[in-house]
Amino acid sequence: MARAARSRTPHPDPPRHPLHRLLRTSLDGVSALPAAVRRAYRSRRTAPAATRGGPPRSTARTAPAALPGTAPRRPLRSALGLMAVTVLGAWLGLVLIGGVRAPVGPMDTSMALRPSLTGGTRIDVPPLGDLELRSHYAPVRLDVGVDRLDPVRSRALVDHPERFAGLQDEVTHDVTRATLGLALHSGAAVAAGAAALGLAVYRRPRRALAAGGLALALLAASAGTAYATWNPKSVLEPRFSGLLSSAPSVVGNARNIVSEFNVYQKELARLVTNVTKLYDATSTLPVYQPDPTTIRVLHVSDIHLNPGSWRIIASLVKQYRINVIIDTGDTMDHGSAAENHFLDPASALGAPYVWVRGNHDSHSTQKYLTGRPRVTVLDHGGVARVAGLRLAGVGDPQFTPDRSVVAAGDPAERTAGGRLADSLRTQRLAGTPVDIALAHNPAAATEADGLAPLALAGHLHHRENTTLPQGTRLMVEGSTGGGGLRAVQNRKPAPVEASVLYLDRTTKRLQAWDEITLGGLGLSRAEVSRHLPRENQPGATPSPSGSAHPAGGPSASPDGPVHRPARAPSGGPR
């Protein structure tokens, strides 16, 4: 009997090989799966039956709290948690697997959607810098990176230059196809990221699927917002950050952009074409060819004895092929005779130099500059013709470094501006209207409203661009000297600011302008922002050449709010 009992006890032989053990384990799991499914099914079916059978009252009251699958007691908290998991998972999906690579013309590019508070498009052009376009407002930003120039496709363009004629259509087709692929890939990325994180957090497939579906809905809502706020004209006003020497070639020619604008796709293609030309077969930058029908004016102001400003101005003159430099004063700091030799480089900057006196420039400074080669000094409403432009200017009536004289303030500035206005009226009656009015203080420059289409000033150490009530555009330049040598006293260096103005050679009207901002002391990157006045926007009706009023009136100007500039006290530290 003992032998029989021992024989009934199972003693399986050990597997002869590890593969046998793995196969045996798998078969046991498969055979046990139906029983587990049946138990789960019966538990779900029998619980309600037991309730219908009338369990004790105390059990019936406590059973719903113990039943699986009941609704949570805090649905709002659960929904917020699901939303947080969805957003985080979608963001991780975009960052980790949301990018695509696509050929665009002769270039290999990478495209990706990135979470953003302001939206827009950023085009990275290493090593030159990047372009930012305000193309849309949505919680996602389109990042486009130019990875490299394909040697085979670029060589085909070099060998067959006639292909440049169809390059824009090719680029448009490539961008459209890449954008569609990016949309599909991004949808899969956000759904996968949200579902994976939902599964890791909740460990329930239904919750994971809900997170993935919610992520797709959020992406679709973001796409709808981007479509509703899409601005096809944003390519006309790009912002470039990078090497200053590359800005004219990357941003493009102002006159061509204004006159040749048709649709966004073509402008995007032209923009990519400009970048392509930078990556030519010899890896050299093309020479910037300025439009011969525009006059390029470099507006600087408030240098305040910063010796580095002369090198910056000379570089801008060379890169942008400037026709005339206009300095609206405060070139000096104390106006002493010992400082006069600081002005010697003004004659050798590569372009005519027009200057009006600021409140830190003395009459000794003005006398030193008068008569120097290629330098024109304007005062008392005097008029000069330089580089095809008729300019009139007035010097600042106050010399604030002289503490023995009480500053007269804005009334003195408006009196000086009145002399400028009288000169402008005289020139208009004589049939020789002035194109640009110059003054250091904006309080004086505003007196030229309605008498010249453009007025330039400084003094405030920051930019202001306004359209005055009678239609004159007043452009106040920041400090081209970064606040001068006193900037080292500040915790953060003040930026160096200048502007390039593009004027039509025939009408002398402003076509576009570039705002150039350089980092302060110790910084080397530059930012260039392109702007267009309303009358030169595509589809706008240009104003008559004899009127100083822009199309649409002052209240319709889109390039800045219409208000008179804030005025700093004339006797202040500036």
Please tag this protein with its features.
six-stranded mixed β-sheet, Purple Acid Phosphatase, chain A, domain 2, alpha/beta, 14 helices, metal-binding, hydrolase, disordered C terminus, 19 strands, Calcineurin-like_PHP, single chain, Metallophosphoesterase_sf, metal ion binding, 2 domains, 13-stranded mixed β-sheet, 574 residues, disordered N terminus
Give a verbal description of the structure.
Helix content is 37%, strand content 18%. With 574 residues, it is α/β, with parallel strands linked by helices. It folds into two domains: 79-244, no CATH class; 264-536, Purple Acid Phosphatase, chain A, domain 2. Strands 1-2-5-3-4-6-19-18-17-7-8-9-10 form a 13-stranded mixed sheet, sandwiched between helices. A hairpin with a 5-residue loop joins β15 (464-467) and β16 (473-476). α4 (75-97) packs across α6 (167-202). The longest helix has 36 residues, at 167-202. It starts with a helix and ends in a 43-residue tail after the last strand. Residues 295-462 form the Calcineurin-like phosphoesterase domain. The chain crosses the membrane at residues 79-100, 182-202, 209-230.
Describe the structure concisely.
The protein is 37% helix and 18% strand. By secondary structure, the chain is of the alpha/beta class.
